[in-house]
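User: Reviewer 2 asked us to show a designed sequence for the structure in our supplementary figure. I'm pasting the structure tokens here. Could you produce the per-position amino acids so we can include them in the response letter?
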């Protein structure tokens, strides 16, 4: 069964995803609750950091379990996590898979780790 993947940065772009072998069945802008957007390193890499008082915007993509495995390989410096996002214009939150810093708040000082 397909699942919702919450994307930030270049992973919001369906063209970028297709170039990596991922073809979402559906994509929707949404707000992720309980996380904040953070940027680290000289490359400006985006991270979703847990923060119960925050929210962040991104795109939800409907992907297959196989595509999540592909994402695991692409997002190798992150850990898979779950959250809840609210699509724009809707009142109900839905469960999503997202990638967060594998280091939590204790990120290494330089990249690659």
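Assistant: Here is a per-position design you can include in the supplement:
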């Amino acid at each position: 069964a397909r699942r919702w993947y919450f994307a930030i940065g270049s992973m919001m772009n369906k063209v970028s995803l297709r170039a990596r072998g991922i073809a979402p069945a559906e994509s929707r802008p949404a707000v992720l609750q309980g996380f904040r957007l953070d940027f680290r390193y000289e490359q400006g890499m985006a991270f979703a950091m847990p923060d119960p008082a925050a929210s962040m915007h991104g795109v939800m993509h409907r992907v297959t379990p196989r595509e999540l495995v592909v994402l695991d390989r692409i997002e190798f410096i992150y850990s898979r996590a779950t959250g809840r996002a609210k699509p724009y214009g809707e009142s109900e939150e839905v469960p999503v898979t997202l990638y967060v810093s594998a280091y939590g708040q204790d990120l290494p000082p330089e990249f690659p780790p």
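For the response letter, you might also mention the following. The chain has a mean pLDDT of 88. The longest strand covers residues 45-63.
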